[in-house]
Design goal:
- With 240 residues, the chain is α/β, with parallel strands linked by helices.
- The chain is 40% helix and 20% strand.
- It is built from eleven helices and 13 strands.
- Strands 1, 4, 5, 9, 10, 11, 12 and 13 form an eight-stranded mixed sheet that branches. It has a three-stranded antiparallel sheet with strand order 2-3-6. Strands 7-8 form a two-stranded antiparallel ribbon.
- α2 packs across α3.
- The model has no long low-confidence stretch (mean pLDDT 95).
Length: 240
Amino acid sequence: MKILIPNAKELNTNLESLPFQGLSEASQEILAVISQMELEDLADFYKLRLDKAQLELDRWQRIANGQARLYPAWQLYDGLMYRYMSRRDLSPAEVAYLEEHVFITTGFYGAINVFYWIAPHRLDFQGSLKIGQTSLKQFWRQQYDQLVRDDELIISLLSSEFEAVFSPAIQKKMTKITFMEDKDGQLKIHSTISKKGRGRLVSEMARQQVMSLEALKCLQPDGFVYREDLSKERELVFVK
């Protein structure tokens, strides 16, 4: 079983860190392309003002020069989903569960375990970055597919942007989780509720050592309850 979660733009570097280490060949290829970009190119690529793009340029330069510090991926990423995950004072069983089953999809390092040590950077699959003649999604597809190829159960907490990196055959095997809010009898989906629900769900799955869909359906993370009447074979709906 694999549980797939997206990366995040928000980063927290107020953590213990390690000196930079070498990159995989795939990450080196991506770095070589990004290193050719000027500040204006990065601003256009990220759709940021020049001062914000300068921060990203500095990060990439530190990686290229081997001066970047490394942090555990799920501690470095600090978006709303990550802030709603229990990331401290974990039991040995929870650590073992996360290490074996929970993976972050990234554009620079590929699909990595939550404890993998990475350098601060920003890269997703929304831009038009190409490695040679290959899009970033196609560049990582084989590695992404290989990670889950032998898994019968693939839990996707990803947006469509990240799911699209996987081949169509793998996407069909995924079980998606949808979080909804009941507001005065109206069921609504919005990003804040979804991100909070994803974070709580991952932590509850680790705490209760969930290994099946039936066990997953019994969870009530942060007040979300499974709704069979709204769910489908490959989509479980939880309502708060």
